[in-house]
Structure formats: C-alpha cells, structure tokens
Write a structure and sequence with these properties.
With 89 residues, the chain is α+β, with helices and mostly antiparallel strands. The protein is 38% helix and 31% strand. It has helices at 42-50, 54-57, 59-75, 81-84, and strands at 2-7, 13-19, 22-29, 32-38.
Length: 89
C-alpha cells in the first residue's frame, strides 16, 4: 500500500492510498477511522472526491466518525490530561 496524497479538511485527516491499482481512502478523527475502497478508475474517483468543498463532501463521513467515537467512549472513557503526564520518580 502506497500513499498517493491527502485531501485537506479542517477536522478530519483524509489519506489516499494505492494498492494493486485500487484506490483506498482513509478518514481519521481522533481514535476512529473509516476506510473506503474503490474499484473504479482512480482518476475519476479522485476528481469526484475533490469536486466539491471538503467540508460539504465529507460531512456524512465526519458524522459517522463522531458516532463511532461516541460508541467507543461508552466502553472506554476519554483520557484525562493527568493520564497523559508521565510520573517521574
């Protein structure tokens, strides 16, 4: 799998991958991710992904990432600031 690019978005990370002439798009927000795999011609998919504003185009995906994070947090509460600080003895 090889990274072929990224799409700028203010709240989520969008990375484009090429593997065996297929396009994969990974959407990440905090500790959640969604990967979509496309079989169509890569240039067509890339043009369609970049055709509209990123905020509008990926609004649905961002909503799903938020739902995944809410689900995850039901089982694992978010880390507090104190847990990030290492105790040095």
């Amino acid at each position: 799998m090889r990274i072929i690019g990224q799409i700028d978005h203010p709240r989520i990370k969008i990375t484009l991958f090429n593997q065996n002439d297929k396009l994969s798009v990974k959407f990440e927000k905090s500790q959640a991710e969604i990967i979509l795999k496309f079989r169509e011609e890569q240039s067509t998919v890339l043009n369609n992904l970049k055709a509209d504003s990123p905020e509008k185009t990926f609004q649905f995906i961002e909503g799903k990432l938020d739902e995944i994070l809410n689900f995850k947090n039901r089982f694992e509460p978010p880390i507090t600031e104190d847990e990030d600080i290492l105790e040095i003895i």
